[in-house]
Specification:
This protein is of the alpha/beta class. The chain has 10 helices and 15 strands. Helix 2 crosses helix 3. The longest helix is centred in the middle third of the chain and has 21 residues. The structure holds NADP nicotinamide-adenine-dinucleotide phosphate (NAP). The site of NADP nicotinamide-adenine-dinucleotide phosphate has 29 residues, from helix 1, helix 2 and helix 3.
């Protein structure tokens, strides 16, 4: 089969598409013919060996996919051959076939196309668990989303609106802000236009209730400062490459909370709540109310370019890889 292979750690350009043997199928696993795979920022980090877990090269990157079951391993119930599924894995999805634990996939709801199913899992789950269970967002609240044109950010804009919040989107380009507006953001802040602290103060004179931050760096503190008393700041990721250092007096003075979210530990330690969220989110996907925005699609042969696009922060919504682009 054709697959994108990372032969040694490095920049996205180390990844090359070559012929490799199809991965072996073990008990409890499914072989899925990949129709679409979504690129996530952590894929870039795994290729560079800058992620919190290392995968020894050579390996096939790619953590999100949608496709059709073509073979079932011993002991797998359900997910018969021909069934459309989507799921996530640590690596392996940027290939014509992926082998994954049957327990890690979900059925694609009728009417949902492969690119949308592939792009849905990580960003929308991250955004929904963050808003619903960590920030405990309630209707009528003011939500600020940093990186609002990116995968997690745009999902947070869409789902925050669905949960009844008024959404302020912060992003770096008119294109990203326009997509955020089309996903329900009513206040748009271009952080490249001037100091973010002033821009947020002008946009939200009464303050905000919740900030979702997948970017970190220099944007975190000005966003924290716009919270009103009792506000919640959720740190989700550091796409800027910089982990912010926050003066704790800002937390003390207004009684705000800074809370972290990490999807693996959340689904492990709050399994019941994660299960409820998953059901709600799947219903939204099936109803067409949680459809991701696909900003760019690349052919499998151009996987390195797709990774570069995401690494440079150019992605608007999600970037997807398909066999033919
Ligand atoms: N905690 C979890 O469980 C979890 C789950 C999924 C993802 N994450 C993390 O969340 C972060 C965002 O993921 P994503 O999928 O939303 O990424 P993305 O689609 O690439 O968006 C990231 C946004 O960060 C901003 N950015 C600033 N500097 C950047 C830089 N040097 N390179 C790239 N982006 C930069 C950009 O926003 P502007 O254009 O507005 O500057 C960009 O739109 C990543 O760090 C990822 O690892 C965490």
């Amino acid at each position: 089969m054709r697959a994108a292979v990372c032969p040694a750690y490095g920049a996205p350009e180390v990844v090359e598409v070559v012929e490799v043997p199809a991965p072996p199928l073990g008990p409890g696993q499914l072989r899925v013919l990949v129709e679409a795979a979504a690129v996530n920022f952590p894929d870039v980090l795994i290729v560079a060996d800058k992620y919190q877990l290392s995968v020894p090269p050579p390996f096939v990157p790619g953590s999100e996919f949608a496709g059709t079951v073509v073979e079932r391993g011993e002991g797998v119930d359900g997910f018969e051959v021909g069934r459309r599924v989507f799921g996530s894995t640590m690596v392996g999805a940027f290939a014509e076939q992926v082998v994954v634990a049957a327990a890690s996939v979900s059925a694609v709801p009728d009417g949902v196309e492969a690119r949308h199913a592939a792009a849905f899992g990580v960003a929308h789950r991250t955004a929904y668990h963050t808003l619903r269970s960590v920030a405990k967002l309630v209707p009528g609240e003011e939500l600020v989303v940093l990186g609002a044109g990116g995968g997690v950010g745009l999902a947070a804009v869409q789902l925050g609106r669905t949960l009844g919040a008024t959404v302020t989107a912060v992003a770096s380009t008119p294109e990203k802000l326009a997509v955020a507006a089309s996903f329900g953001a009513t206040r748009l802040v271009d952080h490249t236009a001037g100091p973010l602290r002033e821009a947020l103060k002008d946009a939200l004179p009464g303050g905000a209730d919740v900030v979702v931050d997948p970017v970190g760096g220099s944007r975190a503190e000005p966003a924290l400062r716009v919270l009103r008393r009792g506000g919640r700041f959720v740190t989700v990721g550091y796409a800027s490459g910089e982990i912010p250092r926050i003066p704790l007096n800002l937390v003390l003075l207004k009684g705000v909370q800074i809370v972290g979210f990490e999807i693996r530990s959340f689904t492990t330690h709050q399994a019941e709540e994660a299960g409820r969220n998953e059901q709600e989110l799947m219903a939204l996907l099936a109803a067409g109310r949680a459809t991701p925005h696909i900003g760019a699609t690349f052919p499998l042969e151009e996987t390195a370019a797709a990774l570069r696009y995401v690494a440079d922060g150019r992605a608007v919504g999600k970037v997807v890889i398909t066999a033919d682009g």
